[in-house]
């Protein structure tokens, strides 16, 4: 009865229907209003280094249709893959080019965006959504502009990839192709869809 | 009828029918939610999705219902309008559907709603940044009547090649002297995709531009979802010498005397009698309650 692997598995959502809905709504408003941090009350205790906020987004959005790619720190923890596989049913893939969602525990070491699916001119929606785990939001050292923002908005999160502004500019230049970012952590989620212009503040 | 049947039968013989929250199963909601996220990220682009059969016929808002079901939460307050009215068949049916399957609060007051599902109108009351407007869309492809092949229209969108649409509008001018398209008037979203705003009157097009609310569009039969994020530039296509113009009405609303709103024609008799009244029933009722009286209106205190 008490299989060791089953005993070690962390629990999923208390209420799969409403917790998934609330997590989705946070992600939806985050992408609709880029840079504005939406509260995400993730009542989860996923295995480290997966953060509760990132886990809540994965459980709300992923299933057997969405291969997940894990960055090195997450892939190094077998419990993370087991947790995601059990609760979402999503295959964990080794090849970033095959992923629909990618979970990144260490944004500083993030692969180039071009390693992930960027969509095609005919089907720009066939692109990856990157879920970056961040420690904090605040200190607006970036300026955002684009759909969803009235005028401009300040934004800051840490940690981010070193060449973040250049990467986002290259991503914007591909529009309507490109990748979409959800930044999760510190009790919230922020979105940087491909439509946003990111500049140094 | 069903309520009567339930109360008259012994409870044990009637199994309680319970629905998953907002009718759809969780996997379907996740699939729709992922489509909504991509639609928001690429404003105006039609994201294909695996639309389900709903317990209502195509053309009755199956796309809008699926989008509403995917975003709806237990704390939401839902308003449903059909051509601006809260009390028409389509609106009543869909409101009842979600009252039954999601047990959410419903309202007819635009300002109180968090999710508004609409067929062919945008409310007159300005929307706020915490609201989601869900449009029911019959034919999402603005180029469909100009180019029937999906493979071709997809490529035209990929290349941002919208010359066809401009030719169509130009031919209107050549034939009629003005752009004769009055509803489903094509718009360009965020400077990139040309989009069908659903069959709203072109009167409502300016309300989409820089709207603080999130606008989601669902087409059930055609299996497409698209979106306009808040504060996004929505430009109605036009020409420098033929700028986009909305309809104007000669007289104010006959019941509430409102001007600058969209009016419906109501036939009064078989002798040519007619009046023009607000298409937005909530807006009209609110104004009448505030004491505004049109030429055929009855003052609020007399009506009671």
UniProtKB/TrEMBL annotation, chain A:
Keywords, comma-separated and alphabetical: Transferase
Molecular function GO labels: alpha-D-ribose 1-methylphosphonate 5-triphosphate synthase activity
UniProt-listed SUPFAM superfamilies: PhnH-like (SSF159709)
EC number: 2.7.8.37
Gene3D superfamilies on file: Bacterial phosphonate metabolism protein PhnH
Pfam families assigned: PhnH
NCBIfam families in the record: PhnH_redo
Name the UniProt record assigns to this protein: Alpha-D-ribose 1-methylphosphonate 5-triphosphate synthase subunit PhnH
From TrEMBL, chain B:
Pfam family, one: PhnJ
InterPro entries in alphabetical order: PhnJ
Superkingdom of origin organism: Bacteria
EC identifiers of the protein: 4.7.1.1
Signal sequence annotation: none
Keyword vocabulary terms for this entry: 4Fe-4S, Iron, Iron-sulfur, Lyase, Metal-binding, S-adenosyl-L-methionine
Reaction it catalyzes: alpha-D-ribose 1-methylphosphonate 5-phosphate + AH2 + S-adenosyl-L-methionine = alpha-D-ribose 1,2-cyclic phosphate 5-phosphate + methane + 5'-deoxyadenosine + L-methionine + A + H(+)
GO MF annotation, one: alpha-D-ribose 1-methylphosphonate 5-phosphate C-P-lyase activity
Broad enzyme group: lyase
Family assignment from sequence similarity: Belongs to the PhnJ family.
Function: Catalyzes the breakage of the C-P bond in alpha-D-ribose 1-methylphosphonate 5-phosphate (PRPn) forming alpha-D-ribose.
UniProt name for this protein: Alpha-D-ribose 1-methylphosphonate 5-phosphate C-P lyase
């Amino acid at each position: 009865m008490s299989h060791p692997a089953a005993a070690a598995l962390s629990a999923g959502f208390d209420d799969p229907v409403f917790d998934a809905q609330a997590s989705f709504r946070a992600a939806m408003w985050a992408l609709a209003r880029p840079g504005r941090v939406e509260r995400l009350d993730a009542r989860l205790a996923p295995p480290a280094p997966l953060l509760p906020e990132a886990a809540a987004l994965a459980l709300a959005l992923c299933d057997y249709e969405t291969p997940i790619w894990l960055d090195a720190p997450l892939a190094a923890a077998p419990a993370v893959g087991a947790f995601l596989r059990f609760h979402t049913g999503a295959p964990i893939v080794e090849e970033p080019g095959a992923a629909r969602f990618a979970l990144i525990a260490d944004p500083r070491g993030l692969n180039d965006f071009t390693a992930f699916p960027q969509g095609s001119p005919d089907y720009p929606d066939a692109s990856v959504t990157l879920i970056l785990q961040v420690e904090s939001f605040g200190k607006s050292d970036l300026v955002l502009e684009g759909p969803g923002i009235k005028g401009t908005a300040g934004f800051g999160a840490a940690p981010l990839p070193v060449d973040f502004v250049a990467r986002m500019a290259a991503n914007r230049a591909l529009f309507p192709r490109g990748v979409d970012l959800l930044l999760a952590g510190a009790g919230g989620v922020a979105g940087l869809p491909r439509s946003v212009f990111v500049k140094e503040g | 009828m069903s309520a009567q049947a339930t109360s008259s039968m012994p409870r044990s013989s009637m199994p309680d029918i319970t629905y998953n929250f907002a009718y759809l199963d969780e996997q379907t909601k996740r699939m729709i939610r992922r489509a909504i996220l991509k639609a928001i990220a690429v404003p105006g682009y039609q994201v294909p999705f695996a639309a389900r059969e709903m317990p209502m016929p195509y053309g009755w808002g199956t796309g809008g219902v699926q989008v509403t079901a995917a975003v709806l939460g237990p704390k939401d307050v839902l308003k449903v309008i059909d051509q601006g009215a809260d009390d028409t068949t389509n609106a009543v049916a869909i409101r009842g559907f979600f009252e039954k399957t999601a047990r959410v609060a419903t309202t007819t007051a635009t300002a109180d709603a968090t999710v508004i599902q609409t067929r062919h109108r945008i409310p007159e009351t300005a929307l706020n940044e915490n609201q989601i407007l869900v449009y029911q869309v019959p034919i999402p492809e603005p180029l469909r009547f100009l180019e029937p092949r999906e493979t071709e229209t997809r490529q035209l969108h990929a290349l941002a090649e919208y010359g066809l649409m401009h030719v169509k509008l130009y031919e209107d001018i050549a034939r009629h002297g003005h752009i004769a398209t009055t509803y489903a008037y094509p718009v360009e979203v965020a400077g990139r995709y040309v989009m069908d705003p659903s069959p709203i009157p072109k009167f409502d097009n300016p309300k989409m531009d820089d709207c603080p609310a999130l606008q989601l569009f669902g087409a059930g039969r055609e299996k497409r979802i698209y979106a306009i994020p808040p504060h996004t530039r929505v430009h109605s296509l036009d020409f420098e010498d033929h700028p986009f113009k909305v309809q104007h009405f000669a007289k104010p609303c006959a019941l509430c005397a409102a001007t600058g709103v969209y009016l419906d024609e109501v036939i009064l008799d078989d002798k040519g009698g007619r009046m023009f009244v607000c298409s937005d029933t909530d807006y009209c009722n609110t104004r009448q309650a505030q004491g505004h009286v049109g030429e055929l209106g009855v003052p609020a205190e007399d009506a009671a």
